[in-house]
Write a structure and sequence with these properties.
By secondary structure, the chain is α+β, with helices and mostly antiparallel strands. 28% of the residues lie in helices and 24% in strands. The longest helix is centred in the last third of the chain and has 23 residues.
Amino acid sequence: MKQSSNEPPKKSKSQPRSQQKSKTLDRVISKAGLGSRTDARRWIADGRVAVNGRKVQSPDEWIDPAHDRVTLDGRPLTEKRKIYLLLYKPKGYITTAKDPEGRKTIYDLLRDVKDWLISVGRLDQDTSGLLIMTNDTAFGDFVTDPASHIAKTYLVKASLLLSDDQLDQLRRGIELADGPTRPAIVTRVRDSARYTFFEITITEGRNRQVRRMVEALGAKVLKLVRVKIGPIGIGDLQIATHRELTPTEVAQIYRLAAAPEARQRRASASLKKDRIDSSSRSE
């Protein structure tokens, strides 16, 4: 029985390596750094994409990127030059491309950059600090995958004077509504008459995580700045500006995400997800 073109090929030891690496058409276009998967699906639906000369309007069609010829508007699909920027986001900007409420977005700070870029992770409107911007979606997936354990370091101004015991609670992990946090690295920076300033390094990326951890102690976060992602720090980067990451910096992050223990964590997480999905389908 001939396999439908929009079904993923079954992997087996007898299959060529290229066939085992088939991907959906929208993902192939996105991986080339031309736009998001949403953009790709729109282009495909509009009839602008062809595979081996045949117009394809299903974004879920499986193709072999190594052997199939993909064109967009008649032009061969070629990967864009990979771009990696480090942006110092100010407070008051949101991490999105467009906002229906007309609020300022991080893309207002990148008007001199003409390429399509995504943010690697997010910072909420009231948080300032480092964001990585890139058109390399695989790199973004590596960094944001919780199993990669890429560390993010923040400077925090708490609304109260925090005791050593409270900081120890952060180090051990805090019970939140969505489960306990991983242990954190916490360093008291200084105390003023009313406030504690401290540095915290976490390896998760939950929504408003640092703020919620501090709130669990009975305090509020008055100021929050992300000062480091993995080995990359703010340095002398000025607020509301950006710079290109060096090839060494990109390689350093890839090494962290591709370390054997990180790969094993991602494989275990993927297997767990597959089991859950399989269980859901069988019910």
